[in-house]
Amino acid sequence: MAGEHQLDSDERQQLQARYAEIATLAGGLAHEIKNPLSTISMNLELLVEDLANSEAQRDRRMLKKIQTVQRECRHLEDILNEFLKFARVGQLNLTDADLNEVVQEFIDFYRPEAEQHQIEISPHLGGNLPPVRLDRALFRQVLMNLALNAQQAMPRGGQLELQTSLRDGSVHLELIDTGTGMDPKTMARMFDVFFSTKPGGSGLGLPTVKKIIESHGGRISSDSEPGRGSRFTISLPGQLLSLRGQ
Ligand SMILES: Nc1ncnc2c1ncn2[C@@H]1O[C@H](COP(=O)(O)OP(=O)(O)O)[C@@H](O)[C@H]1O
Ligand SMILES: [Mg+2]
Q: Which domains does the chain have, with CATH numbers?
């Protein structure tokens, strides 16, 4: 990119060390906030129980206000949990995996929820895929985040297609939805931490997905058309079968 200068290895190491320090600090901060927050939530719950059976007008009004505070606490807790998940992506537990099998497992798990939301899942799993090195638990998180976004983009139902294929030695996975799609402004910012167009959205789903995919040596891209839907494409390096076992 114009104006961007190549980092030498010293600079890169310094940046990495600084990034690690900030990530540790942020993770610590999130934990520190979680503890008092859970004390607050617990006490609010006790207050709600105390007030729940009272008929007095004043108590009714208090109950309503406390419930608002409770909702906001839950929202904060959700954000902190998402953030901790994001910060935790570090060490991978890699095994050789058949991507089709991983995708099929996910579909079996997700289908009941999809059906509840009038979403029809159609898998198109390509043949002859080489194995990929995967952290299965993290990859499930990727699929869940992408499926959830697709679901939220199709509030009245729709179609979610999952395609796998082999292209130029890379294994590709595409998730295609028939949802709201994204305008160029959203497209430009969707991978930014805390960027969300949803009320109460954490804005951490796609940054987490990107971080997981890149830590696998893969890439993620997307294209979208407002009003028609979106496509997210993941590519992962395929294992070279001919070199294995030598
Ligand atoms: N499948 C999709 N269809 C339409 N918009 C999407 C889709 N996936 C992501 N987006 C957009 O990208 C934003 C960021 O997504 P994400 O990081 O998962 O955060 P969140 O879901 O909490 O908003 C969303 O708020 C939405 O605007
Ligand atoms: Mg999301």
A: 9-88 (1.10.287), 95-240 (3.30.565.10)
pLDDT digits (tens, 9 = 90+) for 147-187: 999 999 999 999 999 999 999 889 999 999 999 999 999 99
Residue 47 — very low, low, confident or very high, per pLDDT cuts 50/70/90? very high
Packed helices 57-88 and 9-52: angle between N→C axes, nearest 10 degrees: 160
CA of 78 to the centre of ligand 2 (A): 12
- Protein residues within 5 Å, CB atom, of ion ligand 2: 149, 205
* Rounded distance between C-alpha atoms, residue 14 and residue 63, angstroms: 52
Per-residue pLDDT tens over the stretch 126-153: 998 999 999 998 999 999 999 999 999 9
Report the separation in Å between the CA atom of 203 and the middle of ligand 1, taken as the mean of its atom positions.
7
- CA–CA separation, 208 and 24 (whole Å): 16
With residues binned 3-state (H G I as helix, E B as strand, rest as coil), the percentages for the chain, rounded to 5, are 55, 20, 25
75, 156, 159, 190: residue to mutate for ligand 1 pocket, most atoms within 8 A of CB: 190
Q: Nearest ligand, CA of residue 200?
A: 1
- Ligand 2 centroid vs 192 CA: distance in angstroms? 12
Residues 6+ away with beta carbon under 8 Å from 175: 143, 146, 147, 150, 160, 161, 162, 231, 232
Q: In the structure, which protein residues have their CB atom closer than 6 angstroms to any atom of ligand 1?
A: 145, 149-150, 153, 177, 179-182, 186, 190, 195-198, 201-207, 230
Residue with the two structure tokens 């167009």: 197
Helices (H), 202-241: 205-215
